[in-house]
Fold:
Amino acid sequence: MEPLTAIVTIAAKYGASQLIRALTGNDELSGLASELLGELVASEDRLSEQLAGIGRQLEELLDQRYTIALRAGQRALRDASTAPEPNSRAAELARARDLFREAAAAASAKSPLQIAVAERYVALCSLSAGRPDAVPAALATVNDAAFRALTEALPLFGPQAYEKARKQLPRSSRLGLRGRREERIDELGSDLVDAVDDVVDLSLNLLAESEALARGLGQDLGPETDVDLILPAGYEDDERLARTAQVVVRPATPGPLRFGPLTVAFGEIKPAPGRPSPAAPEQPGTAAAVVAAELARAQPWSPQDGMPARPPGFEVEVLVRSDFPVAPALVVSLRPGLVLADEVLLEVMPGRPAFTGVASGMLAARMQEIRLSYFHPERFVNDWTVNINNVLIFQSSDSRPS
Structure:
């Protein structure tokens, strides 16, 4: 079992609350605690190797202090799992927690994945040492860092990988003909895609693990969600990718969608009043001017507010909120009728150019929320999609096209 799936798998098997009780040293669940720590310890070394491999491919070399502290913390965690009595176990867990905090401090600012991995260990050690009060802060950092790692990596899980490879490959006569250069670009691009795949996989597992632990601690995260990674065509055959991978988040039950630090809440479709074209201003004091002033006070819109004219219709609003001020900015769009089917995002409603398409905006750096509204002159589909940076998709339902 991979290190970042052990917790999620055991939580699904026994329940998140049982998992937390086991980690915090409940004597009745000593068998479960041993199973959990055994799974973690058996595979943690592979995580260090994986991080090093990712760093080499993405030119994000691990700081030596980070590597030393992370591996020392893993050894202390291993010693804690085999400690013969509670006091020595507690001492090893405290030592491991301190080492992982040191690793988090040494993590490269260029690699949020390193930060997420170190903070993940801080959370586990705090739980195992009977300090559940210290866990939420560590999990919040895991969510923020893993989400940044994911959204930075996903754009490279497609054609951009080959563009990056092209820029990295020097123009040299040793490469010979143009065909040979293109072969090298394909090879380097494929290696980069593999490294990005590892980043995406680790990031998604970190986010899933963090959610399992948070729910076990009793945090209200809303309804559970289904998360799917949509791989581009040709990836399994190691072909050059023509499309970019996307992560799709769908509701398992109705309610706001929670994914990492983001919450996406879809509103109901509501009637929206029309807006007339701005008319030429009447002379003050005339009867027409008095009537226009009364109408303006009675309506939620004003012909002078600079808004374009439109007929009455229907409108839906979505709220996208982050637990942390975002960095960098996120491009957010709202549109009707996108659903997931056969691993392809299909638009089931073509829309009308005059009134439909995409409502878009930007969740600017250091901001935490954005609201988008979408208008149509007739009542329309109930399925909606929020698209973030064109790689992260939130669906309002799990419906499929007929």
User: Anything to note?
Assistant: Confidence is low (pLDDT under 50) at residues 297-304, 340-356. The longest strand covers residues 313-322. The longest helix spans residues 178-216.
